[in-house]
């Protein structure tokens, strides 16, 4: 009888599979009672339980599980509804769904293309595991839906302390929820460990939510001194999270935030952090071209007012204050208005810097009119700078006119290079030429 009952059709399907696919619970029960083989799979490798789960047939799934059907549901393309149904049964019957075992201490699902439904299954299993301390779910596709499920499981876990969830396209809400749980339970979400002294996340495609998780972890780390987040997309929300961490962490001395799409709100948050942070020595916010206006001014003021900051985006604050440099080349550093303002304040009363290079024929910076105006104010009182390169700096007419006004009172500067500032028009160029008219030895390149 069992042999007959397990005969297959042209697709390799048994009667049990067909009944499971159709959701006929009574037929499934009858077939099981008559000895139908629950381990059989069709030509595509699909079992009766797989069919029941995919079609969201809860009664059928229960019957098959009661008869000992093995669950192999991870990475099977389940939808949220089916995964939720299976998780409910798993919780009721104490059945593991993801392939993990109760005695595991570590589990690695990273870079496996998991979907939100897979996270639901893993979340169900986590509630049954008493010794798991480390879980990797980084670089998957569980998204915000999956992250929220994992977060709920973490609330009841007593031993899990490392749960890497970076690079999952989380939204701000889910990342913030996870960060709150992390703070309350001491759980790390970025893959960092408490004994790390350096962390390099550069050029990893990280977004705002990832930075929120990293910011949460930073508050749990007592020896980390160097953090590199350059060339990502953490944006304002990510910058705010890092800034909040900077307010409380007492050992981090170097933070690199270059090329991160940070704008005014992020810059203002960093400025507030600098007011209370007493240990940060090196900070870079270069190549964040959206930091302008009031935000740039506030960040510059905070950097200059910091008691610990020695370098901002390559600008050597400490060395300039100590008059250790006679020449300074900062071309092609991605400097913006913030750095232009800081630099201007530092050279204003410098007694030794004679040459300042902020641009070149091929590459420059992005100090713009704001930075140019600040440099102009410095030139009005500086008595030692003789050569100044401002090529390729997106300086327009307003910046050019400000520099022209400074040249009327500055008698020391004799070489000024302003080529390749495409925003500068005839009015700006005329103002500059008029300002140095009659100074035969003055070199002005436009």
Automatic annotation (TrEMBL):
GO terms for biological process: nucleocytoplasmic transport. GO terms for molecular function: GTPase activator activity; small GTPase binding. InterPro entries: Ankyrin_rpt, Ankyrin_rpt-contain_sf, Leu-rich_rpt, LRR_dom_sf, RanGap. One of its GO terms (cellular component) is nucleus. It comes from the Eukaryota. ANK repeats lie at residues 11-43, 44-76. It holds the Pfam family Ank_2. Keywords: ANK repeat, GTPase activation, Leucine-rich repeat, Repeat. PANTHER family: RAN GTPASE-ACTIVATING PROTEIN 1 (PTHR24113). This is Uncharacterized protein. The lineage of its organism: Eukaryota, Haptista, Haptophyta, Prymnesiophyceae, Prymnesiales.
């Amino acid at each position: 009888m069992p042999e007959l009952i397990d005969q297959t059709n042209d697709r390799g399907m048994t009667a049990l599979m067909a009944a499971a696919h159709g959701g006929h619970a009574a037929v499934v029960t009858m077939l099981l009672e008559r000895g139908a083989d629950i381990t059989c799979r069709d030509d595509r490798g699909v079992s009766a339980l797989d069919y029941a789960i995919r079609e969201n047939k809860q009664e059928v799934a229960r019957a098959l599980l009661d008869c000992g059907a093995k669950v192999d549901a991870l990475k099977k393309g389940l939808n949220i509804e089916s995964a939720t149904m299976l998780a409910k049964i798993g919780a009721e019957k104490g059945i593991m769904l993801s392939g993990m075992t109760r005695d595991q201490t570590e589990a690695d699902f990273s870079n496996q293309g998991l979907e939100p439904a897979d996270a639901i299954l893993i979340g169900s299993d986590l509630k049954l595991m008493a010794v798991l301390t480390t879980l990797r779910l980084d670089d998957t596709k569980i998204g915000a839906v999956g992250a929220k499920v994992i977060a709920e499981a973490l609330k009841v876990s007593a031993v899990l302390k490392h749960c890497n969830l970076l690079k999952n396209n989380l939204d701000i809400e889910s990342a913030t929820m996870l960060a709150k749980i992390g703070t309350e339970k001491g759980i790390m979400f970025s893959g960092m460990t408490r004994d790390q002294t350096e962390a390099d996340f550069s050029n990893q495609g990280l977004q705002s939510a990832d930075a929120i998780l990293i910011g949460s972890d930073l508050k749990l780390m007592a020896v980390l001194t160097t953090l590199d987040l350059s060339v990502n997309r953490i944006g304002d929300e990510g910058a705010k999270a890092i800034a909040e961490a900077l307010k409380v962490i007492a050992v981090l001395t170097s933070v690199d935030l270059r090329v991160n799409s940070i704008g005014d709100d992020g810059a203002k948050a960093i400025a507030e952090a600098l007011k209370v942070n007493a240990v940060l020595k090196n900070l870079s916010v270069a190549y964040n071209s959206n930091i302008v206006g009031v935000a740039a001014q506030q960040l510059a003021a905070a950097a200059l007012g910091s008691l610990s900051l020695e370098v901002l985006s390559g600008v050597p604050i400490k060395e300039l204050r100590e008059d250790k440099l006679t020449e300074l080349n900062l071309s092609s550093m991605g400097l913006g208005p913030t750095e232009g303002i800081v630099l201007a304040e530092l050279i204003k009363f410098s007694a030794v810097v004679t040459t300042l290079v902020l641009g070149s024929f091929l590459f420059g910076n992005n100090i713009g009119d704001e930075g140019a105006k600040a440099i102009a104010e410095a030139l009005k009182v500086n008595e030692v700078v003789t050569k100044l390169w401002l090529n390729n700096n997106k300086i327009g007419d307003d910046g050019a006119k400000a520099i022209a006004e400074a040249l009327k009172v500055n008698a020391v500067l004799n070489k000024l290079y302003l080529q390749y500032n495409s925003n500068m028009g005839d009015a700006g160029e005329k103002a500059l030429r008029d300002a140095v008219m009659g100074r035969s030895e003055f070199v002005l390149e436009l």
